[in-house]
Design brief:
heterodimer, A: 449 residues, mainly alpha, two-stranded antiparallel sheet, 7% strand, globular, B: two-stranded antiparallel ribbon, 13 helices, 1% strand
């Protein structure tokens, strides 16, 4: 195995595992604000307990997010040194800003939210929840700004020593690619949060306990889930996709498996891209659909891979194709499930509809898969570039760190993260078993997020 | 000028991290042997519970600041110290998770195991951080392109081809272990009461004697390993105030702890850490990472600094953001001020 591949896998593995946690905390942060707001307005102790329960789940996720997040900032330097040396002046800024503007805010107010309830007023406790939400969403913003610059570099100059420099700070922050990606990504986090909340509600109802809380969770989860599942397709996914097609035609062609440029290109629903023959094996195609989705007319020309030099094709073509199709397919399922659930909720029949409750329960892992597949689509689509059009991935990794040193630490992370995954599952299982009414140990005693 | 400003801003972030997360780590080390009962253990953990995560943010924010202000240094040092940094990451993960998990698990054996992991990870972290700083002061075998890769150890000598660990960096690690354990003991004597606080105060004395000895040894060793460290001091004799500050704050720790004034003793410990780190930075300036392979290969301020526009823009948001951040820190510490009370709930 080459050092380049090891360093790619190193980053890919650690960031994929890491993002399992923030996608839930960012989504939940919004839903906790909703729970706290209702509690504050109505004075309902039940909604307050519901908020505390999700606060505990949030707290566990937050710690796992923090400890798996620290390696991410280090890995820019440890595994991608040549990239960092040239791009630090640009993307080091949003990364440092994340720490300065978001983490201090988030950690301070999370401490107050989780352990300070008795030391502050009700209003202040609500405010802490809002600040945790704001902090976590700012954090997401700066990460997206970083990635967006690699996807779609804007407003940069080069110094005599080859380093990139920011020309306009505001253009860096307001990169149109980043704004679209941010909207799409944060909606994805709300999908995860609302599906997890609905699933816990469905679990309690099916298990015939904590019924009052289950109804709160389902009400909030399904309404938020419906809104987010629609928004993630239209307009955020739609606009983001159009922007990709215009600015990264190779990525779009790879995502759609479009080998030949076509007027009135069809959309492949299912199939297997065959890089050798340059076609899709066993396809099911909706004719003209792709042209329509990208350009709004069934006749428009869509650039295929045949117009792109072979050395600029995405390097993992089938993986890109599958990742994109899994994301889009699951997105469709989310909308269907949430429309049915919301309809039943409105007709007051959701809580008795066991089949739908089972579907909600079993669907909780799917947003995690969809979010991961979405990120794989973005990052694989950018290949073979590290900074699109400017720096190849093969030029960015640390060449002083040999493949076997990289493999050693990659295996170390895999082992440690397996252990973390196991511990996380045990902790969350216990919280859900204890339920919102338990004055379980963590809330009452010295706690340590 | 910009270079000078950013050099000291990064130094401030490092000092902030060491002073704040330093007492968390020290409490972690003491957690191995100071408490005798379960409530005492919980009291110790509760003294850092609401703040350790915020304290760790200084490391992240400092790393990010280093990344954009001195990209070459960040790239070279992080890839060159690859193996020890990965170990540091694993230790940070183990520390955070064991601390978190401990409060969710009631079974005695598991708790004992997690207590052990937490304490050992904290102790190893202090040693690694101290050794890391000593590596920077000693220098590394930089190639012409500004990169290097260090094995964990070679012949334990700080020559032209050193390892991460040699006798000099081991002294640095021990110094950090003792200094931060002492720092943690002073924190505990503020935040706890009764027997635990007495024991914390009691352990300060032997730790202090060790620290005073190690401080002297490390200063002599640093001058022996890199005599250039004194150049700045001779050029600007007024800056000998820094080593004087080290001595004064050390004396202050001893005296104020004896007079049972834990807050002031803790502040002296903060100043001790500040003066030690500031003194080390001043000894390096304007070099950021010395080369053991010839001074022409040193990574210097002018060589590593980012573009002028990047730095100018950075100064604006950095100043604004850090002012906000310090506001939150003060706010949180004031909300959780006073002794830990396990019955107060939440804290």
């Amino acid at each position: 195995m080459t050092a380049e591949l090891i360093h790619r896998l190193h980053f890919a593995f650690t960031i994929t595992f890491h993002y399992l946690f923030p996608q839930l905390t960012m989504g939940l942060a919004l839903l906790i604000v909703v729970l706290k707001s209702v509690a504050l307005k109505t004075g309902s102790e039940q909604w307050d307990r519901a908020a505390r329960f999700w606060g505990r789940i949030f707290g566990i996720n937050f710690v796992f997010g923090v400890v798996t997040g620290i390696p991410m900032e280090f890995e820019f330097g440890t595994n991608w040194a040549r990239f960092s040396q040239l791009s630090g002046g640009v993307i080091g800024q949003p990364l440092a800003m994340e720490g300065v503007f978001s983490f201090f805010l988030e950690s301070a107010f999370l401490g107050l939210f989780l352990y300070g309830e008795k030391r502050i007023s009700k209003w202040m406790h609500w405010f802490s929840a809002v600040m945790v939400f704001v902090g976590s969403w700012i954090s997401g913003f700066f990460i997206i700004v970083t990635d967006a610059w690699m996807q779609h570099p804007v407003s940069y100059g080069r110094l005599p020593n080859g380093q990139f420099e920011v020309l306009s700070f505001w253009h860096l922050l307001l990169n149109p690619w980043g704004l679209l990606q941010y909207a799409h990504n944060m909606t994805g986090a709300v999908v995860t949060g609302s599906f997890v909340m609905s699933a816990v509600g469905a679990f309690y109802l099916l298990d015939r306990r904590m019924m009052d809380y289950a109804r709160i969770f389902l009400k909030v989860g399904v309404i938020a889930g419906l809104v987010a599942s629609v928004l993630i397709i239209f307009p955020t996914g739609d606009l983001h996709g159009k922007y990709v097609a215009r600015n990264q035609p190779a990525a779009m062609a790879g995502m759609e498996g479009l080998f030949k440029t076509e007027d009135g290109a069809g959309m492949v629903l299912i199939g297997q891209p065959n890089e050798e023959t340059g076609q899709i094996d066993n396809p099911i195609v909706v004719s003209d659909a792709l042209s329509f989705l990208i350009y709004g007319t069934t006749k428009a020309e869509v650039k295929g891979l045949d117009q792109i030099p072979r050395d600029q094709w995405p390097t993992a073509l089938p993986l890109l194709f599958y990742a994109y199709h899994i994301m889009a397919g699951l997105g469709t399922w989310f909308v269907l499930l949430m429309i049915v659930s919301a309809f039943l909720l409105w007709r007051r029949r959701l809580y008795q509809s066991r089949w739908v409750l089972w579907a909600l329960l079993l669907s909780f892992p799917l947003p995690y898969i969809a979010n991961t597949a979405g990120w794989m689509t973005a990052e694989l689509g950018r290949q073979p570039w590290l900074i699109y059009g400017l720096m190849r991935t093969s030029e960015g990794y640390s060449n002083t760190v040999s493949a076997s040193n990289g493999l050693f630490t990659l295996l170390g992370f895999m082992g440690l993260y397996s252990l973390l995954g196991l511990l996380f599952t045990v902790l969350i299982y216990r919280e859900i078993s204890n339920g919102p009414e338990s004055k379980s140990a963590p809330a009452a005693m010295a706690h340590a997020e | 000028m910009m270079g000078l400003v950013w050099f000291w801003l990064v130094a401030v972030m490092i000092v902030g991290y060491v002073v704040l997360d330093g007492f968390d780590l020290g409490v972690g080390v003491l957690h191995l042997f100071l408490p005798r009962t379960e409530p005492e253990r919980r009291t110790m953990l509760a003294s850092i519970g609401p703040v350790w995560d915020g304290n760790e943010v200084w490391l992240l924010a400092g790393g990010g600041t280093l990344y954009f202000a001195f990209p070459l240094l960040y790239a070279s040092a992080f890839s060159g110290f690859y193996l020890p940094l990965m170990i540091v990451l694993w230790l940070l993960i183990l520390r955070g998770i064991s601390l978190e998990l401990r409060n969710h698990i009631e079974v005695g054996v598991w708790r004992a195991l997690l207590d052990g992991v937490f304490g050992v990870a904290s102790a190893l972290l202090t040693i690694f951080f101290g050794a890391a700083l000593a590596n920077v002061l000693r220098g590394v075998p930089l190639q012409a392109d500004g990169y290097f890769f260090l094995p964990l150890w070679t012949n334990w000598q700080p020559g032209p081809n050193p390892g991460i660990l040699d006798w000099y960096t081991v002294i640095g690690g021990l110094l950090a272990l003792v200094a931060l354990t002492l720092h943690g003991a002073l924190w505990l004597s503020i935040k706890t009461s009764h027997r635990l606080a007495q024991r914390a105060r009691g352990i300060v004395n032997p730790l202090w004697l060790l620290l005073a000895a190690l401080t002297v040894v490390s200063l002599v060793a640093t001058i022996a390993v890199r005599p250039e460290s004194l150049n700045n001091y001779y050029s600007f004799p007024a800056t000998f105030v820094v080593p004087v500050g080290v001595i004064v704050s050390l004396a202050g720790i001893w005296l104020l702890n004896r007079k049972a004034q834990p807050v002031k003793a803790f502040l002296c410990s903060c100043f001790y850490l500040f003066f030690m780190l500031a003194g080390a930075c001043w000894g390096l300036y304007p070099t950021l990472l010395p080369a053991t392979t010839g001074a022409d290969r040193d990574i210097t301020l002018t060589r590593a600094i980012s573009g002028p526009h990047t730095l100018a823009v950075g100064l604006v948001w950095w100043g604004f953001g850090m002012a906000l951040a310090i506001g939150y820190v003060v706010f949180v510490y004031s909300k959780f001020r006073g002794k830990v009370d396990l019955n107060a709930g939440g804290h």
